[in-house]
Amino acid sequence: MIRTGLRGPIQVITLDRPDRRNAVDGPMAQALAEAAHTAERDDQVRVIVLAGAGGTFCAGNDLKAMAAGDFPIPTVDGPPPMRVTRTPAAKPVIAAIEGYCFGGGFELALWADLRVASTTAEFGALNLAHGLPCLDAGTVRLPRLVGQGRALDILLTARRVSADQALAYGLITQLVDPGQALEQALTLAEAVARLPLEALNTARRSVLDQWALPEDEAARNEARLALRL
């Protein structure tokens, strides 16, 4: 249900359950976490690309599996349903998005640093329409990415956001033709992978750290990280 493949310095992790539109159940979430953590520990890997099989990124958590108790009972300190989303990855992550990107799949895409989507992509927290709350940090990352007003519009209406609107909102990085999201994400990943790794990760870490800090302390944190080089 999770496929992995190495393309030079790029680890491709593919959600491969097309008969369920790549909806994630408990074992699949665990396999996703294991694949991501393996890539983080592999010195050969510089960038991680997330993709979905069968023309769909991820329709969210598998509601039938959730009803059957397939997922651990959520807690504040326990792992979230998608397993990997509670903390940022140790390396840059790019999501290649075709078709549905809903619910937990939407939150997984928000976990990525960059998002490349085709014109077939649709986004949204459709889980809220079923009375299911966000547990994979979507309500944290979405407003930081698109602003509070737009985030609340997406969340409070639980509506579908088109690829064109996602591009206008800054939700996605690039918009491509149908079927081209993965190839374009790999091209982007190759460009990232060619950069000096330590300086790249220092800049990324500073961006991610600064949200919890006052501006002056965020500037000092940037300096501390940079001077470690």
Automatic annotation (TrEMBL):
Gene3D superfamilies: 2-enoyl-CoA Hydratase, Chain A, domain 1
GO MF annotation list: catalytic activity
Organism: Thermomonospora echinospora
InterPro entries linked to this entry: ClpP/crotonase-like_dom_sf, Enoyl-CoA_hyd/isom_CS, Enoyl-CoA_hydra/iso
Family: Belongs to the enoyl-CoA hydratase/isomerase family.
Coiled-coil stretches: none
Domain of life of the source: Bacteria
Pfam hit, one: ECH_1
Name the record gives this protein: Enoyl-CoA hydratase
